[in-house]
Amino acid sequence: MHTRIPFGVVITVFLTISLAFFACPGCGGNGKSSGSGGIASTGTGTGNGGNPGNAVPRDYTWAVEVSASQSDLEALSERIQGFASGIWNATEGQMYFRNQTLKGSGNAEIYFTHVDLNDKYNPNGTGGMTQPHRAGGFTMWIPAGCTLANFLHEIGHGEFGKDGEEYYCTTCVMGGGDMRPDDWQKYCDKTTCTVGGTAQAYCWEDCILKKFPAWTHTNNAPGGQPACTVDIQ
């Protein structure tokens, strides 16, 4: 889901959250145990140390919007590792997650809205939400149980400049959740898109290759995924 939030709404929400924070003595804690910094997560999706070559690295900061225990953070780090595998495959080995930072609270680019790995939806009912910034970059909100396809959908908005939605494409992560498997890792092109003719319909030609003109699109599987570390703070 891609949304643009009016400036006035942002100010109102900020003031509301700020007042709630200062009015509630218990707010702001993250519930995690001390001494957790510097933990590099391992497990599925960590990569095999493959050579990234000229692939574009991404080092994101992630945070949790609710109280999170150490075990919660470790479980979320595994989710990040799975996303790392997905971005490597979806971009045909041309973008990879390098050094990720996961915090129990604070400012971040990507927020987990809760810690329930069985819940695929944000509190507002969305499978994910991304706010691109005019100066570049983005802020993303995803549930702890965010599917790989939904995460790549949000990356399509945040990293690749995909405006609007393409919910009815059946071959692309930009399609709606009922249009493709949860582990789908493909962006569509002119030969595969099922909603051709609409604005920015072809993800590779209209968005990805315009954002990264040095990239190629061959539909070939990439080589070994570079290692990804998740530092829990």
Give an account of the 3D structure.
It is a single chain. A seven-stranded mixed beta sheet has the order 1-9-5-3-6-8-7, covered by helices on one side. A two-stranded parallel sheet has the order 2-4. The two termini are 29 Å apart. A hairpin with a 5-residue loop joins strand 7 (129-132) and strand 8. The chain has one domain. The longest helix is centred in the middle third of the chain and has 21 residues, at 70-90. The chain is built from four helices and nine strands; from the N terminus they run αβββαβββββααβ. The model is unreliable at 2-45 (pLDDT under 50). It has 233 residues and is an alpha/beta fold. It is 25% helix and 14% strand. Helix 2 crosses helix 3 (148-158).
List the helices and strands and how they pair.
Blueprint: H1 7-23, E1 39-40, E2 56-58, E3 61-64, H2 70-90, E4 95-97, E5 99-103, E6 110-112, E7 129-132, E8 138-142, H3 148-158, H4 203-211, E9 229-232
Parallel strand pairs: 2-4, 3-5, 3-6, 5-9, 6-8
Antiparallel strand pairs: 1-9, 7-8
Helix pairs in contact: 2-3
